[in-house]
Amino acid sequence: MTYIHDTISSLQHTSPAQTEFYQAVEDVLDSLAPILEDDKRYQQHAIIERLVEPERQIMFRVPWLDDRGQIQVNKGYRIEFNSALGPYKGGLRFHPSVNASIIKFLGFEQIFKNALTGLAIGGGKGGANFDPKGKSDQEIMRFCQSFMTELYRHIGPNTDVPAGDIGVGTREIGYLFGQYKRIVNRFDGVLTGKSMLWGGSEARKQATGFGCVYFAQNMLEDRDQSIKGKTCLVSGSGNVAIYTMEKLYELGAKPVACSDSNGTIYHSQGIDLDLIKDLKERRHERLKVYLETHTDAEYTPREDYPEDGHSIWRYQADLAFPCATQNELTERDAQCLLENGCSAIAEGANMPSTQAAVDLFVEAGVAYGPGKAANAGGVATSQLEMAQNAGMRHWSFAEVDQRLQEIMRHIYCTSRDTAARYGSERNLVLGANIAGFKRVADAMIEQGLV
Ligand SMILES: NC(=O)C1=CN([C@@H]2O[C@H](COP(=O)(O)OP(=O)(O)OC[C@H]3O[C@@H](n4cnc5c(N)ncnc54)[C@H](O)[C@@H]3O)[C@@H](O)[C@H]2O)C=CC1
Ligand SMILES: O=C(O)CCC(=O)C(=O)O
Fold this sequence. Notes:
Layout: H1 2-14, H2 19-31, H3 33-38, H4 41-44, H5 47-51, E1 56-65, E2 71-82, E3 88-94, H6 100-116, E4 122-128, H7 137-151, E5 160-164, H8 170-184, H9 204-221, E6 231-234, H10 239-250, E7 254-260, E8 263-266, H11 273-282, H12 290-293, E9 298-301, E10 319-321, H13 331-339, E11 344-346, H14 355-364, E12 367-369, H15 371-374, H16 377-390, H17 397-421, H18 428-446
Parallel strand pairs: 3-4, 3-5, 6-7, 6-10, 10-11, 11-12
Antiparallel strand pairs: 1-2, 2-4, 7-8, 8-9
Helix pairs in contact: 1-2, 2-6, 2-18, 6-18, 7-8, 9-10, 9-16, 9-17, 10-11, 13-14, 16-17, 17-18
The structure holds 1,4-dihydronicotinamide adenine dinucleotide (NAI) and 2-oxoglutaric acid (AKG).
Protein name: Glutamate dehydrogenase
Keywords: NAD, Nucleotide-binding, Oxidoreductase
GO biological process, one term: glutamate biosynthetic process
């Protein structure tokens, strides 16, 4: 299709070497042919050309002092991608791999994800190539303060509301908020994922993982199956992976494997989630330490992974939940999952499957929930946090969880029904992309040429 080729060629010229960004754009454009054919207004209003260019890109120096008194410098980003539906909304990622391509792919995905929630939130993302691993609490605080000393002027509760992502949890949000408040002298809802002591929402910590399992539940129910009794693989062992495993246990399933960037644990008895929480949320330990408590578990270090894929997807299981990072599930991994009888994949991470892996899932007709639909529970609950802050209210855990379940059902049904309407029954990739695109594109048309 020429519009895909033309768009990617143009991006290669204007935004060179941003391969993850091109991948995310291609994934969306690949789905759009039926709606572009159906409604010529999108081409007349140059919606695609405008969508792929962020409204604003902020890049800045983040100087900070380490514990030895040495000055360190990192690069910070905030990409304010699209505000047609509401204030820019999306997390901050602190990881050494962060660059413009990674932040732009995440920001682009966020536009459609946020649109799918049905809530009033635009798309944005940010972060820095800062590695929190091995840093002291004081170093993390100094880094966050320096990061916010530039970021504060670009954000606001009705302008741009960042949150966490990889490497940014409640501790980092606390330091970022403290510095924001000190500079602007206002206590407002400018960040989400805040501590429960000072304006956070119940269930935000759990929301992405819980939401991902609710999404899987919806997919399975439509196929007369249930989560109960299923064996599951959950990659990662951070915020999303932990609360995916927690909800799976609550619904009677058994996660048997999880991972971190150094290796994979397989434990046929079922992953000991209390131990994982202790290792990852409190002690900030490597996953390998799990073996000190459970000698019957199996650990595969990253160096022993096959060249064409990852260890975790080679185990037999009914359901798979990629919850670590982008492109962590390759074509070969997808083949292994399908050969081993895996019947549903719900993505807690952003773009965890390569395009070839996605194509295999869609062709095989298994239940496949792409990240922008399946992991939208986190950002949706962030919007619930914004609503509580604006109304000076605090809702109970049960109330937020109930709303989260309704939102995940809405996202699932909208994606499913849109796929059917455009002639690709059960293709949730196409359904999610078209439904997200339509809401944003229609809003852009109504708001004129901006
Ligand atoms: N935190 C949130 O609310 C949301 C997060 N996401 C996505 O979920 C994914 C995970 O994010 P969080 O859990 O928040 O981050 P986190 O920082 O809490 O945890 C990330 C986990 O992934 C592991 N990891 C990183 N690279 C890996 C690799 N190559 N192989 C295996 N494990 C690896 C890390 O060791 C860590 O356990 C990311 O793709 C993020 O963008 C998506 C929606 C919302
Ligand atoms: O809660 C938020 O605002 C952002 C969550 C996020 O970064 C994501 O959905 O990928």
